[in-house]
Design goal:
Elements (H helix, E strand, L loop, with lengths): L2 E6 L2 E6 L10 H16 L5 E6 L3 E3 L4 H9 L9 H11 L4 E5 L2 E3 L1 H4 L6 E5 L3 E3 L13 H9 L1 H10 L3 E2 H7 L4 E3 L4 H13 L3 H12 L3 H18 L3 H12 L13
Helix pairs in contact: 1-3, 2-11, 5-6, 5-10
């Protein structure tokens, strides 16, 4: 199964479970996660959602093989919800969302932290927003949420450099709330989740709504801007070079692209 779901003490734990693919999101995993978020939102017995990954990754982001197929295969068919549906579910999720970053987080495996109410990270984990390395634009309203979360200059580095950020850097930036040793990560995240889950669900929802409602219009606007840029860049020379280099097992060379790319 691509997702593992467990309930305990009003905390629902969703574990991304494609360890052989570093929990990268293919269309099926996007669909399953979106549906799991919506189910948790509607379940009156769930107070808090805890999201983590299996194996050595939190999530390696969008499955690049499917991204390549999207641009090259005329028969490619997107899922029912896909990436946009997952973002809709994250934006609308009304209850506390806690992320436990157990390993590498790439792309949506990093930008999802913009939607987390609390984020815990293993000392051995690392994060990357690889958009410029893929020749594309930011995603998941990260162009708005990351400056809000970590400040403009930290966000500029995160979104422009395509460089790895280790746990200490993530904590210093304010990208995550707590850094834990690997064998303590889930226990610490669960302990805090259970503290919240013991509170009235109606009150938790009210607190989150009053905190996030002022951001909704800006998130929607950021997604529209990002999607427009993504459409312009997807399948362009830089993106094709990046995906071809990935398929060929080499580093991309953007220096030989046409002027402006």
């Amino acid at each position: 199964m691509s997702l593992l779901i467990t309930d305990d003490k009003r905390v629902r734990t969703i574990t991304l479970n494609r360890p052989d693919a570093l929990n990268a999101f293919d269309e099926a995993l996007y669909d399953a996660t979106a549906e799991a978020l919506r189910a948790a939102a509607e379940d009156p017995d769930v107070a808090v959602l805890l999201l983590t990954g299996s194996g050595r990754a939190f999530s390696a982001g969008t499955d690049l093989r499917e991204m390549h197929a999207r641009t090259t295969d005329p028969d490619f068919r997107p899922g029912k919800h896909g990436f946009p549906g997952l973002l809709d579910a994250l934006v609308e999720f009304p209850k506390p969302l806690i992320c436990a970053v157990n390993g590498i987080g790439l792309g949506i495996g990093a930008t999802v932290l913009g939607f987390a109410d609390l984020a815990f990270m293993s000392t051995t984990a690392k994060l990357k927003c690889p958009f410029t390395g893929l020749g594309v634009a930011p995603e998941a309203a990260s162009s708005y949420l990351m400056p809000q979360l970590v400040g403009r200059q930290n966000a500029a580095w995160l979104l422009m450099s395509s460089e790895w950020i280790d746990a200490a850097q993530a904590k210093e930036m304010g990208l995550v709330w707590r850094v834990c040793e690997p064998d303590e990560l889930m226990g610490e995240a669960r302990r805090h989740a259970e503290v919240l889950a013991a509170k009235p669900i109606s009150s938790l929802i009210a607190v989150k709504r009053t905190m996030t409602e002022p951001l909704r219009a800006e998130i929607d606007a950021a997604r529209e801007r990002e999607n427009a840029c993504f459409r312009d860049l997807m399948g362009g020379p830089a993106n094709i070079e990046a995906l071809t280099a990935f398929a060929e097992g080499r580093q991309p060379d953007f220096t030989a692209l046409p002027a402006g790319w």
